[in-house]
Every structure is written in structure tokens, then in C-alpha cells.
Specification:
This protein is an alpha+beta fold. It contains seven helices and eight strands. The chain is globular. The structure holds zinc ion (ZN).
């Protein structure tokens, strides 16, 4: 199904792709940075750029839709709706991470979206392989519900809750697809190294406090 994050790198065109899942990458379009929450989808143009970065749209299709949708009331209304949906999804994901089940209200909303915006599946070429995947061709803004709704439904039905996790150092959520299942950070580059350095410094501070007045200091460090 059309749900794995298809983008291989962490940042694409100013958007974060560390969720390992389209639904989580969508959720992570409102990260909290040092200066506070940052809306990465402030306007319709940004939404289309995110759809291209996440490979829901081809760059060519993105250019066409960006021109077509810009400054239309329908696109503005849709953007507000999908951002509100994203925040309801956030509550659900946080609940899942805490072991709570999905509310009936959210399930009903999602089922309604799936019914109103069914996904089109097609046989697509992925490198040398053929893959059954989403072949959505949005024309109007609300067509974007189809890939988002199916991704969220897939996340909630197929992912083990234990693998759904929030980064230990920031607000970003991800699906741990590692073999060991012990991933703790959104990304080693973004938070992993920062935490490791902080932990190292903490150990150093603790070691200094414990350090005897006389003795071999270097053996007590780290
Ligand atoms: Zn993080």
C-alpha cells in the first residue's frame, strides 16, 4: 500500500522526512524548534511542495496544481481542514504511543474520509521492480484526502504500537522499522548526536563530582 516514506533523505525542500511513514511525515510538518512550534504548511504553495517532496505528486504535477490552486478559496479551506485533521491525528498517535486505543470518533472521521475519497491503486515502476501502489492523481484540493487518509488508516491498522514512538529529544514522531526496534531519536544527525554529547557531558560532570581529591582523575572519566 502507498504508505512508506518514499523519500530517502531527512530534509527535502525544507520538510522533514524521518517518520518512515507518510502519515508520520505529514504529522511532522509542525515540528517544535528552539523558537517554538513551526508551521511548515503555512499556505497552499507549501502544501503542494510537501506533496511533491513526499512523492505523492510528481514535480510536474505539483507545478500545475500550485498554479491552479493558488489563491482559490477551496484550497484555503482544504488547507485549514487538513491542518486541523493533522492535530487530531497527533492526539491519536500520542495516545497510541501511550498504549491507548484509537477513539471511535477518530475512526468514524477516518472511515468517512476513506469512503468519500477512495484511493486509486495502480501498478507502478519502482526502479527495476513493479509495485502495487497508490496512483492518486489529485485535480482538486480535496483529492489529497485520498493518499493521506489511506496512509493514516494503514499506520493505525498495521503498525505495532510499540514501534510508534516520539523522539526522546524533540516532538517528532517516527515508526521504528529497525531490526532491533531500539531507535530512540528522530535522526542521529538531528537529535541523536545532540543527546549523545549531552549524555557525555553529564557523565563528565558526575565523574568530576565523584572524583577524589587525590588519585588518578583520568580513570574516573567517562
Ligand atoms: Zn528528534
Amino acid at each position: 500500500m502507498p504508505v512508506a516514506s518514499k523519500a530517502p533523505t531527512e530534509w527535502i525542500d525544507g520538510f522533514l522526512f524521518v517518520g518512515n511513514h507518510l502519515a508520520l511525515d505529514f504529522l511532522n510538518t509542525r515540528p517544535v524548534l528552539a523558537e517554538g512550534p513551526k508551521e511548515l504548511l503555512p499556505d497552499v504553495e507549501a502544501l503542494v511542495r510537501w506533496l511533491v517532496a513526499s512523492r505523492v505528486l510528481t514535480p510536474q504535477k505539483g507545478r500545475i496544481l500550485s498554479r491552479k490552486w493558488q489563491d482559490t478559496p477551496q484550497a484555503s479551506v482544504f488547507l485549514r481542514q487538513i491542518r486541523k485533521f493533522r492535530e487530531r491525528l497527533r492526539a491519536v498517535v500520542i495516545g497510541q504511543e501511550a498504549g491507548r486505543s484509537v477513539s471511535d470518533a477518530f475512526m468514524a472521521e477516518l472511515n468517512s474520509l476513506l469512503k468519500q475519497h477512495p484511493s486509486v491503486i495502480g501498478l507502478l515502476r519502482k526502479g527495476k521492480k513493479l509495485k502495487l501502489d497508490a496512483a492518486s492523481e489529485p485535480e482538486k484540493p480535496t483529492d489529497v484526502w485520498a493518499p493521506i487518509a489511506i496512509a493514516v488508516a494503514e499506520l493505525l491498522s498495521n503498525s505495532s504500537p510499540g514501534r510508534l514512538r516520539k523522539c526522546e529529544a524533540c516532538i517528532v514522531h517516527f515508526l521504528d522499522t529497525s531490526k532491533k526496534g531500539s531507535r530512540r531519536w528522530c535522526s542521529m544527525n538531528i537529535c541523536g548526536n545532540r543527546i549523545k554529547v549531552a549524555a557525555y557531558q553529564q557523565r563528565k560532570r558526575t565523574a568530576r563530582k565523584k572524583m577524589p581529591l587525590r588519585g588518578n582523575a583520568s580513570s574516573t572519566l567517562i
